[in-house]
Amino acid sequence: KVRSYTWSINNTPIMQTASQFDHKFDAAGTYTIAAKIVVYCDTCTSLISLCNEKVVTVGDQLTKVDSLSSKNNTLVKNEKNSKPDKKSKKEKVKETVVKNEESENKNESIGKNNSSFLNDDELKALNWNTSPALFNSNESALRSDASAILDNNVNILKNNENLGIVINGYADSKGAAAYNKNLSAKRAQAVKQYMVEHGVPAKRILSTHGYGEENPVNKCKDGVECSDEEYQANRRVEFQVKAKRIKS
Description:
This protein is α+β, with helices and mostly antiparallel strands.
């Protein structure tokens, strides 16, 4: 019997607990998809963990891959090159389509390099507010200063329908790592909800991520004493912005 599923892409945990799911990649490239399943049985003396992983290359065209399913002990396959096998029904892989962001519309490419994020100069030209949205300790509720930043950027998104964003949430190093990762994901979701409620179509928000204590903006890692201001700087949500343009 299955107790739990845990997933990661390129060693970054993702918020999924189902045996299979759809995932939209942010850009073309090579991705390592890993799954861990914890199982038990009536006669087992302890829990059993099973792990599996597969490297997938996502290109500019629609890539169909078989969904990872630890229960069936299957690996991700590129459907373009795979051939039907003669396995039993229980062994057959349930197929799911993973769409690369560039292939959602075959007539579009993303950014100047088809998948690149806008740099600081390009964001400045748009009047995009690059300041992070900050949060109080142990909270995911938006503060007034964060709302002001979001309001500015919401207006830019409304006036530039070619823009899409990725929302990244973070936490300080106080507390358990698992708690902080979950808290940072809640912060990213709070920002997404605010922007959608204020008129940004949900499809323009390409993805949200909760990175927990990773990527601090200063020295404040585990075991390092920091000031309140330094801890505050890491309790944040940041944006990455992409611009779509029609191919000539």
